[in-house]
Amino acid sequence: xxQCLGNNRGGQVVSAGMMITMWVVLPxxxxxxxxxxxxxxxxxxxxxxxxxGPHLDRAQRLGIAATRAGFPAVxxxxxxxxxxxGPHSRPEHHIQILLTAVQAVAVPVTIAGVALILLPxxxxxxxxxxxxxxxxxxxxLTASALLSATLVTFDGGSTDGRYRTAETLFTWVRxxxxxxxxxHAMQYAPAIYQARGMIIVLLVAIWPYTRLAGILTVxxxxxxxxxxxxxxxxxxxx
Length: 238
Prior knowledge:
This protein has helices spanning 2-45, 58-84, 93-123, 133-153, 164-177, 184-187, 191-206, 214-227. By secondary structure, the chain is mainly alpha-helical. The radius of gyration is 21 Å and the shape is globular.
């Protein structure tokens, strides 16, 4: 009896440790990797190594434009949905219809854009040697993140009185942002929600080390340079 109880306690300890590792330690490590990677990438090539230059064909340029249009829209949908959702409820009906419509357009546009950026180097013999394992992982990982977002949005287990995304993923993300992590929100979540959480964590961790690193960072840096006052501008005289 005591031996069984001891084994049970050991299993609970292992389960608790695994839960904290998956839903607390790994997400924060992913953020550290993302921040450090962006600093390294900025110093290394200013995020311009793969997205600019004469080596880009027409398809890749179209992919860059599509990704820059679709990805921010997908991200905005997630932010608005998380902000407008209650602890167990979806956003209001008209908001949900708008978010669903935007997502229906933005998800395939983004997947197509990422594919157009990543596929030519994967099949071209002259640049294949420069394709890293992370580049090979980026397309299926990005597609999985976008498709899983659609799956959880239309999850049949989320009724009017219960919204599983709000109960699991949104609660977990909010707790991480507030620096009061709540791993229990994901511990008993359905497998698709746990898989989506891990996909996002991995994507955040590797993003600055892939060919997509500058897809949004370069436009943001340009905007900051335009908004920031230049120290070389002469002061007005009069």
